[in-house]
Amino acid sequence: MAAVRLRLLNRNGKPLQLHLQACDVKSKEEKSGPENMLTESSTGDGFLTESGRKRASVILSTEDQSNFQVTQMKIKVRKGAIGAKCGLVFAYKDDDPFDAEKHFKRFKKFDAWDYKDYKEFVQDNVKTPSQSEDEPIGWFELEDDWNDVEIKLQQCRVAKFLMVKFLCTRQDSAERLGVQSLSFSGYLCPGAERLGDLDDLSPEGESFDGDAVTGLCLLNKTLFFIQQLTRDMVTVVIDGLICPDIAMTRRCNFSFYCTALLCTIAFPSKIFHLFL
Fold first, then answer.
1. For 99-149, how does the pLDDT look when each residue is reduced to its tens digit (9 = 90+)?
2. HEC profile for 1-56?
3. Residue 59: φ, ψ to 5°
């Protein structure tokens, strides 16, 4: 089941450092620009838009714009009326040279959304998330008296870019939008271009009846999945010196992943259901 894979990805995700590529609004001043959301310190102004702008979109990626997966996000907004009330998260690929205007135009239809549109979307999609890159893979909402929220994304899509849209402020009377910080967990995915997205198991260039998948394709996907979850195994010895319990947990996880690989080879029809 896909839920099993998603649960494993969420449990084993590591802190992911993303970098600002573009923002569609100006900031209040230089020290309150959108890049401040991504710094470890949360004692400054964070991100404050210029006066009159109550929504904003930011585009993020790795430093070299390589593939990655985000599994979880932590969002902290400013206190009071200016704090972001809700928003959407998109993960997508674009292999052309980076063009911020092109990226913002791709998701422009969501710029007109207000809180009512957001609530209707969530009600319609919470059980059946879209598979299209042009639809959100996650969303968030903050209560008036709570400034922090942690969300698990509905899909862990391999992507080169992440766009976060802050749709509105807590109160219409707010002068501007304010977001204190953003942080992410997930995986770097070097080499994912060769295997393609895990959400697409259909081999290209071959014709099969129904949803048939070749054993080689399934094995490749399983190997890639295990590689994602065990990418940090080189730190086990170091962690063992510092905290033996952590090392033991990771060794047990590694044993589980190896067992999963052997099961894939021996019982491919059973393992296939993990990726449906």
1. 999 999 999 999 988 898 998 888 887 666 566 889 999 999 998 889 999
2. CHHHHHHHHHHHCEEECCEEEEECCCECCHHHCHHHHHCCCCCCCCEEECCCCCCE
3. -110, 130
* Burial of residue 188 (number of CB atoms within 10 Å: 0-12, 13-18, 19+): middle
| Token pair listed for 201 | 């198991």
Give the torsion sign (CA, 33, 38, 43, 46): positive
Q: Which residues pair with 233 in a beta bridge?
A: none
The pTM of the whole model exceeds 0.70: yes
Phi and psi dihedrals of 175, rounded to 5?
-80, -30
List the one residue out of 56, 71, 54, 82 whose CA is nearest residue 18.
71
- For residue 178, report the phi and psi dihedrals to the nearest 5 degrees: -135, 125
Query: 193 φ, ψ to 5°?
Result: -60, -30
Ramachandran assignment for 191, one of left (phi > 0), alpha (psi -120 to 50 degrees), beta (any other):
left
DSSP classification of residue 170: S
Q: Which helix (H) or strand (E) holds 227?
A: helix 215-229
98 DSSP 8-state letter: P
Per-residue pLDDT tens over the stretch 185-244: 999 987 655 444 444 443 444 444 445 556 666 666 666 666 656 655 544 444 444 444
pLDDT for the residue numbered 150:
94
CB 237 within 8 Å of CB 244: no
> Residue 197 carries which side chain, given as an amino acid letter?
D
How far apart are alpha carbons 162 and 173 in whole angstroms?
29
